[in-house]
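During the no-cost extension, the postdoctoral fellow (Dr. R.K.) reprocessed legacy sequence entries with the updated structure-token encoder. One reprocessed record is reproduced below for audit purposes.
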Amino acid sequence: MKFCKVLLNGEVLFEKARLMNSFFERLTGLMFQEHPKHKVLIFKDCTSIHSFFCLLTFNALFIGKNGKILNHFTNISRNKILPVVFGAKYTIEYLEKPLNFSLNDIIEIVEI
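Re-encoded structure tokens follow.
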């Protein structure tokens, strides 16, 4: 199990996020979890997600290879399919209340 810090414009946004690497981790994500152990999940090379079998409402950030925020979906409820976000290098799913971002914000993911 690997973890990362997520930085927003050089400042810590999420102290400890779980990096989803294996096929099974990527397949399940937040599915079937009422009380997930990790509140922030990071998927590398992920351009689309769904919320089938998710018991919680969550938010998703799609990040390009240059760290720019390509799209931010908030309050994703169960049984939804999000549109493909072309060019996404990382997808961050988080359970906290939706955050506000500007077009010039840069997200960095640093493995710890």
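The domain at 2-111 is CATH 2.60.120.1140 (Jelly Rolls). The two ends are 11 Å apart (CA to CA). The remaining legacy entries will be reprocessed before the final report is submitted.
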